[in-house]
Structure formats: C-alpha cells, structure tokens
Amino acid sequence: MPDIRIMVLNYKRPENVHKIIKAYRDQYPITVINNNPTEPFPYIGQPVDVINNNKNYYCMERWIRCFDYPEDYKLILDDDMLIDLHTILRMRKKRQNIIGIYGKTNVSKASCYEDLKDNWCIDAENDFLVGSAILVRQDGLNKIQSELEKIGYPRRGDDIIVSYLLKKHLKCHMKTVSAKVLNLPEGNVGLNKDPSHFSMRWKVVEKFKNLTW
After folding, report:
1. Contact predicate 160/204, CB 8 Å
2. pTM of the model
C-alpha cells in the first residue's frame, strides 16, 4: 500500500485535475479538493477521493484535509503542474518532514516579496517552501495541527505558514530537490493574477520575520 497520498486543490481548472489523476492514479491515492462551489468535480471512484466544498476555503484547505487520511506522507500538488514519478520517489527517500521543488531565500535581507530569491527545481536550502509541490510527513503536520486550525483559512501564504511552524517546532530544513516538471495551463484563475497577490504573501512573511525567522 502506498504511503503517499496526493492532495490536489482545484479552482476552475478541472481539465488539469483530470490530467493529474490520469498521471498518478495507478501509483498513489489522490484527494481532489474542489474549492469552486459553482462547478462540482465529478466523483470518479477510488483511488480518487473528491471533496466538493460549498465555499472557497483558499489554499490552507489542502493542509487541513491531510488530517483526514492515514498515509504517512502527503504530496501537496498545485493544479497547474505534473512532476515526474522519479522526483516523488527521490523526495520520499530523503525522509524529511518537509521537502519541495520550489523555495525562497533572502528573507532576512528582503524588504518586499520581490526581493526574495528563487530556488526552482534545484538542490538547495531555503527559508520557506512554495506550494507548487511539497511532500510533507504527516507526523510533522500532526505536531502543528492545533496552530493551523487556529489560524484558519487566510487568503494567501499557507505554504509560508506551514514552513514557519515546522521550522519553529521541529527545526526542519527547508530543502528543495532537482525535479522534472511539466507545466499545465494556468488559464485566467492563478492566484498571481491578482495584483495584490505578492503584497499579501509579503505580509505573511513579515509577520513571521518579526518573530525571528
């Protein structure tokens, strides 16, 4: 039985989600969390679990839903990409509490989000991971569950919040790995289409920066 479950958050990209399901359903159980109440995602049977929310809970929902499933690891995957199976296996073999393919550095010197430096699909240490594809150990998430539930469902920065809490409580390294990625169409619904997206993310960084990142 696989010890990884893929958690995919959907918002108005059902075609992409069907591609993700096709790519991984023979290897891993998948949970589709649909945050678009106007367009329910179809129930297609196991190993795909579908959650159709009655409102948009934003991205924190993908972490909160991890507590509903028994797998030891959860792969938090955006709905605009595929990563190859070998990358998932390499991430798993490293046995980290959290590991990803996209991270940010330079928090201590930055004065805005644009000052942060990218580590995309390379082996690197980071200040925090960005939620494109993050493999997280459920045992680690369990240790921050109460804090995540208190925070609720912010509009931005779920990945920053999880990174900070795991660093705080478990002294986790925020590592990225080299990866092969196939980008899927973004369409017109990506969070970064909102002109305030990066300023909202920076406010989350600043909050934790003031708590001695």
Report:
1. yes
2. 0.94
In tens digits, the chain (213 residues) has pLDDT values of 679 999 999 999 999 999 999 999 999 999 999 999 999 999 999 999 999 999 999 999 999 999 999 999 999 999 999 999 999 999 999 999 999 999 999 999 999 999 999 999 999 999 999 999 999 999 999 999 999 999 999 989 999 999 999 999 999 999 999 999 999 998 776 666 667 899 999 999 998 876 654
